[in-house]
Structures are given as structure tokens and as C-alpha cells.
Amino acid sequence: MIEAPDLSLAALAPLLFVFGAACIGVLVEAFAPRDVRHPVQVAVALVGTGGGFASTLVYAATQDLSAGGEITAGGALAVDKAGLFLQATVAGLATLAMLLFAERGLDPARSAFVAAAAVPAGSPRDRELATATRVQTEVYPLALFAVGGMMVFVTANDLLIMFVALEVLSLPLYLISGLARRRRLLSQEAAVKYFLLGAFASAFFLYGLALVYGATGTIRLGEIRQAVGEDGGDVLVVLGLALLVVGLLFKASVAPFHSWTPDVYQGAPTPVTAFMAACTKVAAFGAILRLLYVAFGTEEWTWRPLIYGVAIVSMVLGAVLGLTQTDLKRMLAYSSIAHAGFLLTGVLGLGADGAGSGLAATMFYLLTYGLTTLGAFAVLTLVRDGDGEAGHLSQWAGLASRSPLTAAVMGLFLLALAGIPLTAGFTGKFAVFRAAIEEGAWPLVLVAVLASAVAAFFYLRVIVLMYFSPPAADGPTVGVPGIPTTVVLAVTASATLALGILPGAVLDLAERAAIFVG
Amino acid sequence: MSDFPFLVAMIAVPAVGAAAVAALPKGRELLAKQLALGVSLVVLVLAVLAAVAFDTGGDRFQLTTSVAWIPDFGVDFALGVDGIALVMLLLVGLLVPLVIGASWEDGAPGADTVREAGTEARSMRFFFAWLLLLEAFMVGVFAATDVFLFYVFFEAMLVPMYFLIGSFGGPRRQYAAVKFFLYSLVGGLIMLAAVIGLYVVSTSELGEGTFAFDALRELDIDPGVQKLLFLGFFVAFAIKAPLVPLHTWLPDSAAEAPIGGAVLLVGILDKVGTFGFLRYCLPLFPDASRYFAPMVLVLAVVGVLYAALLAMGQSDMKRLVAYTSISHFGFIALGIFAFTTEAATGAVLYMVNHGIATGLLFLVVGMLIARGGSRQIGDYGGVAAQAPKLAAVFLVAGLASLALPGTNSFVSEFLVLIGSFPERPVYAIVATAGIVLAALYILLMYQRTMHGPARGVVAPLAGDGPAGPAGTADEPGGASATAVLTAPARTAVRFVDLSRREIAVVAPLVVLILVLGVQPQPLLDIIEPAVTATLSDLGATR
Predict the structure, then answer these.
(1) What is the pTM of this model?
(2) Which residue of A has its CA nearest to B22?
């Protein structure tokens, strides 16, 4: 007799919310009349992500998590404290991103997304649609599937589930990267690049999975740990581990696996970029942490040099190449690469038996970085010229005299990204650097602080432009954000300040949540 | 009385004041100024009351407050002052209202201000708001007794100063602001690594990580680790102070900053570096301090001479004053790293006196530039005949800066030299040459600008004969349009003497220069116990 796998509905509730909303979204797309589709889709998406966020919190607050969490769905998912923290982070950030998607007040054509993605760019039909106010709503269910994939990704307890989740989160992202209403070719190019490179990275992951399975005979993270601990790491395990990590580092846009990042960040519709920069980063690092800490925690000295080196490359490359950028979205993309390096310094703070503060620090950093970068991209959607968003640096000259509040908010996010005290970015940086130094990785931290200084230069350059340069005569206009974008900006800006000035409660939460089971 | 949280109030009042000033509606410039001045005067009163409440024979740290801030990091919002910090707070409290007074007319319609061609008029509301925020952070940086909190204020200070230079500075303000920020940030980040290192050491020694200064002082750190951590702190402070060869940002920043910003930059912000040497480098890393002392002393003495020579070569008055400061910081560093009570006490007194003397010098130079519209020494001449009071104050400031006996700086320079001579005779003797150079650069500047015939931007008095070679003065038409791009067109003007407002701004400093020149004892009484305690942490013999 075949027994049905045990399912803890409470533990799965967040996933059910998100995937349920995604399925309802598909049905709405099929059956709802066109003129009510947008509000309905927005409502469904917000209920899905918001419900996912709320239900993780409710679950964490009501369940007895003294064992660290539970393993459910036949051992496929580990809903542990760290997993819940990461799920809540993903869902919360995704809720904000959905609000950005829903903004209709900024673009004259009422949406950041193309009206009909299948119409060839530049065709007569496309030109006709470009000015039409018809909006396209497939993006909401697609994004919800991606969010669901991310939430599975950070709780996956075996490699196969992790792979499936990787695909579930990636495929919709490839699609929605190509949905920009303006500069469509750039957007489609970004989608194709992302897809090709992403497929390649998935193949690496899959190959690594096969090798690890071949060496250990299991795909469960906990059993891998046991098997590796008994036999020591043989060549197959080391190779498999390396390939798995490469696949994940790609998603996390860590140099030298970053080459898609600038193009995709630039080409994708800005709300989608914001979503990817914040949520994908959290999900990918969640999976990296789980893989390294749970499955290969005993093999620390195998992966440590790899992560060490990759962290240095990522920080230096992101910071140095960021200097040469003239497009704000590309600049933030390189900043994201540099920040991925800083996050890896936190990953190194594993500690003996996972007792180090690396996990808590990295999770906290993910939260602060996600909020800040989401806010920064949200500001980018406001500054527009006749051809959509004004992304070129020179167009931002003198923004402070034209729109003081926008400039002030952007300035805050930039200072936070640069890691200036009293902003969330500093608290996060401090946490990961502390975790790394505790593990003796002070040379890495020295590189990190120097890279921070280099990176600070390009953040400062934007502030210089906004505040100290005279405004250009034919500069961009600053759109008046609608309610959704206003909410996003208010939440991200106040969180950036609050987590800088009084981070105690959230740090404490991250500290208490820093437990993996499995 | 001493239960009143003076230090918290001294941070909170200007911080709230800054928010209030920034929140004023556009066009209420006068109200903004009055509010800012009022707030800064409140801080001054608080500083004086704190000094009264301070018991010179009491505990090392007084007026303490401590609240848990970020428990996960073991960080407390812990404030307290020793004598060294107290005198620095007095200096902060004194200089900020004066700077506000000195900047009163900046940005007023029609006023010929410090700003030069190529910079448009800006709302001065934000100038005063940033100034007050800077004051809050400056108080915090001196009053923090938690290393993490100190670091937070240390870095946060950059932001208001960055905006002061960048928004309200001279023609090359963008360059100067970024250079200032990046230099300080690099130093700060290296220090951050050391701060975390210190925390990790404390975790392994005490079982629980802490940032509390008093606990860290008791640590017994391995000498090798000490050296690394010392260097982390030292680089940050050496950039801030600044010591040669990490000084190149200061002349740019001070020259491009608005005068008010320049006074605070050189008068107070840079003192955070020397303050840091005394408060953190020496007590926390005694072995490393002794190990590196010869290196620091060499840098200090080289700085004294090199910066003095560079000062003589400057044609820009603000840059000249900036270089004199670098030279003086060499003296301060010499006093600190000579490890004698006399020298270190002299160094702390020097920090105060330098703030007063150089602050006054910057203010007077600013008044001169406000009248002439040029920073070049060569554009001035014969000012003394038209503005005798201005010239007199300039002379007092200059003489104080070159440490003439009878002025405040003499006492401190003398203490530094006599205190370091027994331990480090060679360095003391070489540094003495700096005094001679100081006389040269100050007196040459004074002589060229104040005496001789009226020239450059200074219009001759009636009956004085034709103007000197003031070629750019009244060229009409196209020629001057191109000239504007390269150099601001300068019209020769009659120099009016100091206004009542300006006299009110400079008078307190002139009085202090003379009073502290003959009666430095009250300050020494406050400083000396703290210096003795610091040196006993170091285990110094004398």
C-alpha cells in the first residue's frame, strides 16, 4: 500500500496562498472581461503575496518552533525558522514589487508593460498599441509563479525540489523581463540573454545534482551531509558541489557568473528589475545558504576557498565596473553584483557547527538590501522623459532643485547602498563583516571595505549630480507617483531609516530565526 | 544638577533644530537663521553648564548616560566625557554660533558673498539645517564612550559636511566634496574593520562581545593583533587629522567649503583625528602605540615642515590657512606620541587653541573674500588703510596662529615642545623650525594683503593716485565675457570696515586668544587628569 506523504497545511499555507493566487490569476486572465481584468489581477496578486507574507508570520508566531521547524511534504520541504524568515522576506518584498507593477499613473500609456508581447516590435500594430491604453495583465500570474518558486526554493529540503523550484522561479522571470512597453527590442534582447544563460546555469545545477547523487546515493540535504561526513568528500562530491554552487551563484548574480545582470536589469521593465533585484537575490542566497550549511556544512573547507575567491571577484568587479556606468539601471546592476560579494562574506561566517552569526547576518543583509534596492528602482520609475524613463546619469543633473523630495529619497537609498551609518545598509554591512571576521576572514573584510569605498564613489556621483549640478535645460520630468508607488517609497524609505537607527528588533528576529533543519 | 543629561540634550537639541529649520517653508530665511542661532546658543549654554557640572577631581568619565541600543551587537548608546572631550565640546559649542553669525549675510539678495562666479544663489535654510545636524554629530563623536557609537557619529558627520561643501562651496565644490567624502570614507571603513576586530577580540577574551570603551581598555590584546587594529584606527584618524601624506584632501575641501564649513572642518572635524589618537589608539593599543610611535613622530615632524613650506607657496588664502593647519596638526601629533603628560596636555590645549586661532583666521579671511570676491593673495593690497579693524583682527589671528607669546597658541606650542624634548629631543628640535616658517607664511600674507598701496580688487581711496594693475576691473564687452569663464570678473571696491555683526562674531575669539594666552590654567585643570589617565593606560613612565 502506498502511503500519501504527510502534508502540514499550516506549514504550506504561504505557498498555497501564492500558488493559489497564481492559478486564480490564470483563470481571471481567461475569463474576466478585459476592462475589469487589471484591478482584479492586482487584487489577486496582492492577496496572494500579502497573504503569503501574513501566513508565514502567523505560522511563525503560533507554531511551536523549538525544534527549529518541521520537515513536511514527504521530506521535500524544510519549513524551518530560517526558511520562514526568508519566505517572509520574499513575500513581503514581492508585495511591494506587485504594487510597483500596478502603478498606472506614471506612463502616459498607463502601464510599464507592453500591451501585446507577441506583436513584433516596430510593426504597424505595435506602433498602434504603443499609444493605446490597453494594459496587459499576464505579468501578475507570471510573477506570482516566480514568487511561489522562490518560496519553495528557500525551503527545499532536497536537491530535486530545489531544481524544480529554480525552474519555477526562473521561467516566468525570463518572460516578464521581455515585457517592457518602451525600448522593446532591448527588453526582448534581455529576455533572450537571460533565458539562454539561465538555461545554461540550470544545466550546471542539474549536472552537479547528478554527480552528488552518484557519490552519495541521495538527494536529501540532510542525508548528503551524513554521507559526506562519513566518507569525506571524494572527487565526485567536490565536483558536484562546485557545479551546484555555480548554478546558484548565477541566479544570485555573483561575479564571475554575472554577465547577464547589467543587460537584463537595464532591458527589463523597471518594476520587474526591482522585483528581480530584491526577491531573486533573497531566494538565491537563501538556497546557497541552505545548500552550503545543511548539505555541505561539514565540508566547509571544501567550499570555503571557492566562496572566498568568488566574493572577492564579485565585490571588486561590481565596484570597479560600476564606476564606468552612465546608465542608472546598469549602475544599480553592478551595485547588485558588488552587494552579492558582500553577502558572500556573510555566508563565510558559518562557524563551527553552524554556530556563527553568518546565517543571521546574511539574512538581515538580504532584507535590508532588498528594501533599499527596491526603493531605488522605484525612484527610477518616477524620473521620465518623452521616451519613458530617463535612465542616463546626465539627465539626473539638478534633480534636487526640480523635485527635492524625490532627490532626498533617492539620496537616502544611495547612502544606504553605500553603507553610511544610520541607514539600513550600514547595519547589514556591519553584521556580515562581523560574521566574517569572527571566522578569521579579516583579509576578505579588508577587501570588502575597500570595495565599499570604491562603490561609494558611484553612489556619490549620483548625489553630486542631483544636488550639486545645475539642472539641464531639457531635463526629464518627475512624475507624480500614484498611490501604489507612493506606498512602496514610503515603506522602503522608512524601513531603510528605521533599520539603520533602531535595528534591534529585526536583528534579534534574524538572530532567533537563524536555524536550518534537515 | 549633574544628573541632567547634558550630553543627550546637546545631541538632541541641534538634531531637532536641524529638522525644524529644514522644515520651515521656503522664503523664511530670516526665521531659519534666527532659529539656528538660537539653537546653537542653547547648545553653547548646555556646554558651559556641563563644564560647570564637571568635577575635575572626579571620575574619568562624567555626565554619563547609557542605554542599550542594538543588543545583538552589544552596542550601547553610551555617552560620557573626560576632560579632553569636555574641552572639545566647549569648542563645538563656541564655534557653531559664531559660524552661524559669520554666515548670516550669505545668500541674502545683493550681498557680495563668499560664493564666487559659477555658483548660483541657494536657499540658506538648508545650509543652517546641515550646520545644526553637523553640530549634533560632532557632539556625539566626542561624547560617545561606546566604540560603535563613536564610529557611527564619525561616519555620519561626513554627510552634512559633504552637503555643506557640495551645495554651498566654491567653483570646484563638486570635486572637493567628493574628495573629502571618499578620503574620509576609506579611512572610516578601514577603521570599521578594526572596530569589528576589536569586538571579536573582546568576545574571545570576555566571553561576550562589547564595544564599551571602559571594558575594551582592560583587554590584554596580543601584540600582533594590536598592531593590525592600531593601524586600522590610525589610518582613519591620520586621514582625518590629517597627517602627511594623507593630507591632500584638506586644502581642496577647506578652500572650496563655504567659510562656515571651513571653520568647522579645520576647527573641529579634523580634531576628531587627534582626539581619536588620544582616546582610542593609545589606551586600547598601548604596545602597538609604543611600537609605531617613531613612525608617527616622523610623519608628524615631516608634516610640520612640509606643510609649512607648502603654505608659503600658496597664492590662495584659504589653501594657505589649510596648510598652516596641517603643519599645526603635526605639532599636535608630536605632542600626543611623545608620551609625556606635559606634551600630551599641551597637544590637547593645542587642539582647542588651534580651533580658536585658525577659526578666527578663516573667519577673517572669509570677511576679506566677501568684500573682494577673490581668494588670491595677489589681488589684495593696502586693506589696512581702508579697514583698520579688519586688519587688526587679521593680525591678532595671524599672530595667534604663529604662536606669539601672549597669545593662546604660545602656551600650547611651548608645552608640546618642552614636553617632548626630554623624550624625543631630535623631533622636538626639528619641529621648532616650523615655528620660524609659521612666522614667515603668516606675516608675508598679512603684509601683502594689508599693507602697501591699494591694488587688485581694493579700490584706492580718493587722492591715492591711479589704481594698480587691476586690469580686469572695468573691461566692457566681449573680452570680459570670456574672462568670466576662466576667472571671475573682479571689480575693485572700497573696503568697508567690520560691521557690528562681524565684530560680534570675531570679538569672542579675540578675547579668548588673549585671555587664554595669559591664563590657560582653568583649561589645563580640566585636561590634565584625563591626559594622565590616558597615559597611565598606556603604561607610560612619565
Answers:
(1) 0.92
(2) A404
